[in-house]
Design goal:
The complex is a heterodimer of chains A (313) and B (693).
Chain A lengths: L6 H11 L1 H31 L3 H6 L3 H10 L1 H35 L5 H11 L1 H34 L8 H33 L6 H12 L3 H29 L4 H36 L15 H8 L1
Chain B lengths: L2 H10 L16 E12 L4 E11 L6 E7 L11 H6 L2 E2 L2 E2 L8 E9 L2 E2 L5 E2 L12 E10 L4 E11 L8 E3 L2 E4 L5 E2 L1 E3 L10 E3 L13 E11 L3 E4 L2 E8 L2 E11 L4 E4 L3 E7 L1 H4 L2 H11 L3 H6 L4 E7 L7 H18 L7 E5 L11 E3 L2 E3 L16 H11 L15 H20 L3 E2 L5 E2 L1 H10 L18 H21 L1 H15 L6 H12 L4 H8 L5 E12 L5 E2 L5 E2 L12 H6 L4 E11 L5 E7 L4 E6 L5 E8 L3 E6 L15 E3 L8 H19 L5
Parallel strand pairs in B: 1-16, 22-23, 23-25
Antiparallel strand pairs in B: 1-2, 2-10, 3-9, 3-13, 4-5, 6-7, 6-10, 8-9, 11-12, 12-20, 14-15, 16-19, 17-20, 18-19, 21-22, 24-25, 26-27, 28-31, 29-30, 31-34, 32-33, 32-35, 35-36
Helix pairs in contact in B: 4-6, 6-7, 7-8, 8-10, 9-10, 10-11, 11-12
The chains are: A mainly alpha (313), B alpha+beta (693).
The structure holds zinc ion.
Chain lengths: 313, 693
Amino acid sequence: MPPRLSPLTTGLSAAITHRRLAGVLWLGLVFSALPAWVAFGPLFAPIDQGPFRESLLRGWDSWAFLSFLGVFPRETGIAFAAVGTSLVLSVLLDLLLTTGAVRVLLSGLPRPALRRTVAEGAALFRPVVWAFARYTVSLAFWIGLLVAGPVFLLGKIAGKDAAPNGALATFGLVWAVVASLAVAANVNLRFSLARIALATGQAANARGAYRAAKKVLREARPHAAGLWLFWLVLGLAIQAAFTALGVAMNPATSAGIAALVVVRQLGFWIFAMTRIGYQASLLRFAELKRPLPPLPLAHPFPPAPEEEASTAA
Amino acid sequence: MSSRVLAAAAVLGLFLPVLPAQALPAPRKIVDYDIRATLDDSRRELKGHETLRWTNPSDVPVAELKLHLYWNAFRNNRSTFFRESGGRLRGDQADEAEGFGSIDLTSMTRDGADLLPAARFESPDDGNRDDRTVLSVPLGSPVAPGETIALEIAWTSRIPRVFARAGYVRDFYMFGQWYPKVAVFEPRGRRRRAEPGWNAHQYHANSEFYADWGDYRVALTVPERYVVASAGALVKESREGGRKTLVFEQASVHDFAWSADPRFVVREDLFDPEKDLPAGELARAAKLLGRSEADLRAGFRPVKLRYYMQPDHAGQWTRYADAQKWALAWFGLYAFPYPYAQSSCVDPPEDGTGAMGMEYQTIFTGGTMRALGNWPLNGIREPEMIVIHEFGHGWWYGLVASNEFEESWMDEGINSFTEYEMMDRRYGGIARFPLGARIGSFDLGRIQTIRAREVDRLATPSWGFAPDAYGRNSYARAATAIDQIRRTLGEEAFWRAFRAWAERWRFDHPTTEDFLDAFRPAAEGKLETLFRETWYGNGTTDYAVTRVSSTEARPFEGYDDEGNRVTAPKKASGRKPPPGEKARAAKRYESVALVSRTGTIPLPVTIVLSFENGSTWRTTWDGKAPWLRLRTTYGSRLARAEVDPDRRIVLDANPWNNARYAGEKQGPSAAAKVRAYALHGVQILLSSLWLLR
Ligand SMILES: [Zn+2]
């Protein structure tokens, strides 16, 4: 990370160079989706034995969709439970792997990416989970204070007999969107910078990490928020583009289905690259505010011999 | 009256003398209302006076009159309406403080004679002594057949906070069924009635209305700031002391509703048949109906359309107008053209959902939300659906004036059927989402129908349904059953009978049997079980392919006719057969498909057998036996058997058992495709959460 680069440039270049790290995040996504994937197997098996096989290969079928929900409500419910499991798993894995990714970015030793990311993430897992707990509480607190509270108050001020969608209600809606974004940016930045403080060893626990994050954020909040927003919008655009592409593919052959899966996973991997970019941007941002001490790796894996050759190149 | 008695009566109706099967050129005018009403918005009160002229349409003298005082449904929590609904209708709860409302007669005279002292409330449906919605008025001297009497009636109404169609919210007022309204005296033969008599029912949680046609002149006095929408045409306007009086007239209707709100944004449009009758639709209808385009076009006339919009939805009036113009075109082609010169659409505010989506003649209420005006929710076609549905009631209840109390399926069910058809044809269904997903209207109605464990008959009085069964039966199940008639008869036969039925019963009061009769000639008996099991029963049907097998046919073995023992040639292992022998020994396969029908409604159904070599074999089964075995010996293996491949059995309780594959599935897997998309959906959800952290 040459020091002359801005956080944004640093992030962009990291997103492209640290593709393997993004691959690790993507693997985490695949792994956490496994419960859902497994549950979907038996759930959708009747499709191939039933009357909707041909039409579903052609595309969307409103009757197949509705009658599936009507005929298999219990099975659908079980699958939803599996999706819930995936959700929990994904939150935990994301905490583990993103933390590990930050450590790997700091170390400048990108390989072996998977083992190193997992090992480094595991070393910091406990404090990061505490930091995340603090993140959830503060997210709920600030949303309550700055979004739900004001919107509720505006409703009270308007009174029971206010016409719907009046000026106050419209203001409330706009306020809710803007304030939610501001809260999300702020809470997110504090958590991410706290994680960086943990990763750099500037703090030993969640409380200290948040204190460090607060210091880094001070006076440069708009800059940090800009970074957050940039990576958010870029990420959403990539998600939207690949979602639209995936739907447009609408495959009718086995090869087509395989291609769909590949394209879609490629999309998630590229999306993961934007998250690596975001973390790298924040690292650079934190570094500019406060020079980072040398990094002792938790598990300094010796590079594998063949990797030595490639990193030397 | 219990539903059983009613169903029996309807079946008996078959043998009773029926009115000549002739359409009326215009409605029979039985009533005439001259109403003056004043809205006191500060007291939430309405004072009214009406001159009610009523003509005895029967051949017997009538000694008493029955009046509907509908707003007494909201009088207290002892009314039949409240007892049945718990003060809740269509998801709207009566306001505890302001949900009550009432209508009290302050005077009623006939030729100066006071009729009030002898009048008494009655509860013909449930004997509830606290209900005040039907008033029986002894007339002093009987009204001779054909004689017209005039009653002078004055009343005061307390206006409820709206939760069931009528009432106020802030400055928005909706007045429906708001004046003392005479019930229907049915002569012998009307709606297949054996003896003449009053048809007057209480206001129930689920009941709607039934009335005779006539002319209305209504003078409404309101504070000047109000914009008034009404069923009639404005003929006079005067102002005095901060109030204005608007006089509206409407001939040949059986209902008169109005609405007032100072915030209404009025938008006007014109349905011009020259422009708004889609040429493609005209051609399609002409072909289906076997009539010339000129003939179909002839009855259309321009209709003035008015939209009384809430300011926060004002922009959505074009959606209302688009839907209404399509409905005007569609109904004009497949039923009959709209006969009135104007139509008004009232857009209730979002905190007055109880007033949304209600039909009255030449006026109806729409329903939308501001959020539905913008992406991505604008793909939800609820505003269009509500307009098509409520304006559609202008035909089913309005012009083909069934008895909504006793046969709710005839207004809601037929109307849902035409609504589904119009929504699917014009908008591709009730909702279209980004990325290609959509929800079809018929599909949505159908799924509500077939997955319910049905306990009721369609022909059940609206207050006689089992809990939660009114809505499903009156709307979705009836619409699906009518669709089943269409799918069984085919488009041409169905629409010809449907239009003939609509034209025959325009300006008249049909019954369930009149509707079913319309399809009997084309059905040639095919539909009787459907009619019996659906309109008069709670029957179901489910077709399924229960078994498919295909095995190599074994060569002849055993004793032949000469008594010789024949043994099958041994399988030549390892030896390649010479080329000629291979051709002779071409393999044949014995294939069996077992198709079953469970449930009580046999309907003719198509079965398709598909073989591995790509050939298919189609046949039709009358479905009368509980099962059918199809057996064939053919030079290719049976790959798949499917019953009802064209999705004609819309009452089929489980479509997922309609096909079965023999052996391993060949080719691409739709399950894998759906699973992949579902996985991606989950991955989108999980990975998008990264953005939060
Ligand atoms: Zn309706």
